[in-house]
Amino acid sequence: QSALTQPASVSGSPGQSVTISCTGTSSDVGNYNFLSWYQQHPGKVPKLMIYEVSKRPSGVSNRFSGSKSGNTASLTISGLQAEDEAYYYCLSYAGFTTHVFGTGTEVTVL
Amino acid sequence: QVQLVQSGAEVKKPGASVKVSCKASGYTFISYYMHWVRQAPGQGLEWMGIINPSGGSTNYAQKFQGRVTMTRDTSTNTVYMELSSLRSEDTAVFYCARQWGGSSYDYWGQGTLVTVSS
Question: Which long-range contacts link B77-80 to residues 24+ away (Cβ below 8 Å)?
Answer without folding.
Answer: B77/B23, B77/B24, B77/B25, B77/B29, B78/B21, B78/B22, B78/B23, B78/B24, B79/B21, B79/B22, B79/B24, B79/B34, B79/B51, B79/B53, B80/B19, B80/B20, B80/B21, B80/B22
